[in-house]
Amino acid sequence: MTSDIEKATFRSLIRSKAMFLSESAKRPSDDITESVKKSVKKQSEYGSVLHMEAPKTLQRKKKKKDMKDIGPKPAAKTTSKKDTDAGDKSLALVLQNTASNSSKTTTSTALAINSNGKKPMTKELAMASKAPTMPKPQWHPQWKLFRSISGHTGWVRCLAVEPKNQWFVSGSADRTIKIWDLATCTLKLTLTGHISALRGLEVSPRHPYLFSAGEDKMVCCWDLEQNKIIRKYHGHLSAVYALKLHPTLDIVFTGGRDGTVRVWDMRTAKQVHCLSGHTSTVASLESFEVDPQVISGSHDSTIRLWDIRKAKAMSILTNHKKSVRALCKHPQESTFVSGAADNIKQWYLPHGKFIQNLSGHNAIINSLAVSPSGVMASGSDNGVINFWDYRTGYRFQHLDAIAQPGSLDCESGVYDMVFDKSYSRLLTAEADKTIKIYKEDNDTTEETHPVVWKPNVVRRSRF
User: Fold this and answer.
1) Exposure string (b/e) for 202-223, b if CB count within 10 Å is 16 or more?
2) Which of 397, 374, 373 is nearest to 451 (CA)?
C-alpha cells in the first residue's frame, strides 16, 4: 500500500513539474521594462532609418489617424471661411502639442536607458529576461524482441529490405547471401559467389537487381530473375566496406579500405569518378537526391560531403574524434546522423551544420536507423541497442542483445540494422550469427513508461 502511495505521489510531482516548468524561470511583467525594451529594439532594428522622412502616403495616413483621435467628426454643414481658418489653426496647435509630448517621452526613455552613465541596454540584454526553453521529448512505445532467425554460419554483417516489403536479404562472413520471407521469416534462396565476407547489400527500387560488396574487393550485380551475377565492378584496391545506390540515378557508390569513394555506372559497369581525400578506410556511405549526393564517413574521423559533378568535397566535417562507422539519413527531413565511438551527432544538409550530440554508448557504434515517426535506433559492438527521440536526442529505451544459446557472451555485437518499409519492424544483424527482429510493444503506455526527462539548457555542445 505504501509503495502505491509513493508511486502516485511521484507521478503527481512529475506532472506538476512538467506543467509549471516553462513558467518557473520567467520574470513578472513590468510596463516600464516592456516600454524600454520596445524602444531599445526599435532603436537597434531601425535606428539607421529613424531620421529619414516617412513617405508622403504614410504621412497622409498618419495625419488622418491623428485627426480621428482628436475627436469625433463634426456633422456635415456649411461653414464660413473664418470658421474654417480658425479650425485649421486649432488643429495645428493640437498637433504641435502632440508632437512635443511624444518628443518628451522619447527623451525621458533615452535618459532612463543612459542614466548614471551606464552602458545602454542592448537587444541581447533586453531579451535576456526570457527564460530559455527546451522542447519536451515525444513519447514513443517501447520495443521488444519479436523473432530470432538462425541460418548463417558466420557473423551477419549487412541487411537490406526489398522495396515492396515482401522479403529481405542478409550477407554474412560465411560468404553467402540469403533471401528471407519477411512475413514468415523462412529461407527462400541462398546465393554464392563471393570468396570473402560480405560487407554491403542494396536492392534496386527500379530494377530486379541486387548489389553486393565484400572483403574480396568485388562489387557484384545480381539479376534476381536469373539468380546469378551479371556484372562485376572492378577497381577497388582492397576490401569494400560500404555500398549505396543513388535514389534516382543509375549510379552505384562504393567505399573501402583503399580510402576512396568510387562512383560506378550501373549499366556499363564503368567507373565514373574516384573521389579521393580520405586518409583511411571509408566505412560508411549515404546517398541523397540533391547535393551533396553522397556522404562518406571514414576511419580518419572525418565526414566528407561530395559534389559528384566536380568530383571534389563540398564540406569536410571534423567534429568526430573517433572513426565514423555509421551514417543514416532521415526519411523526410534534410538531416542525417553519424555514429562513432565518441558519440552520435546530428547534422543539417546541405552544408553539414552541426545540430546536437547524442551520448549514451560506451562502445563502437556500427549501425544507425531512423524512422519518419522520430524514432532512431543505434547498435554498438557490445550488443547494446538504444532507442532515441530524434528531435530532442532523448534516449527512451536501452536494450541488451541476447546471444543465442551455444554462442559466446562476447558474440553480441550489432553490425547492421534497418527498418522495414512500414517502419513497424527493426531488423538487426548480429555477431551471434542470427538476425533479430524487434517490434513495438503495444502493452506499453505513457503511465507504465513515462518520459523521465530533465531539461538541460547547456546540453548542446559546440562540437
Assistant:
1) bbbeeeebbbbbbbbbbbbbbe
2) 397
10 Å CB burial of residue 262 (0-12, 13-18, 19+) is buried
The pTM for the full model equals 0.70
Residue type, 9: T
- Which residues are paired to 159 by β-bridges? 170
Q: Is the pLDDT of residue 345 over 80?
A: yes
Sort 402 into a burial class: Cβ within 10 Å, 0-12 / 13-18 / 19+: middle
pLDDT of residue 304: 97
**Residue 307: count of CB within 10 angstroms of its CB:** 16
Sign, CA dihedral 348-350-353-357, equals: positive
Choice between 9 and 219, residue whose per-residue pLDDT is larger: 219
Helix, strand, coil percentages for the chain (3-state, nearest 5): 20, 35, 45
Give the N- to C-terminal CA distance of the chain in Å, as an integer.
48
Closest CA to 171 of 222, 98, 113: 222
Q: Look up cell 562513432; give the residue.
A: 340
The cell numbers describing 95, all together, are 498637433
3 in helix, strand or coil?
A: helix
pLDDT, residue 113, reads 42
| Tens of pLDDT, residues 253-262 | 999 999 999 9
Residue 240 contacts residue 282 (beta carbons within 8 Å): no
Whole-angstrom distance, CA of residue 105 vs CA of residue 93: 19
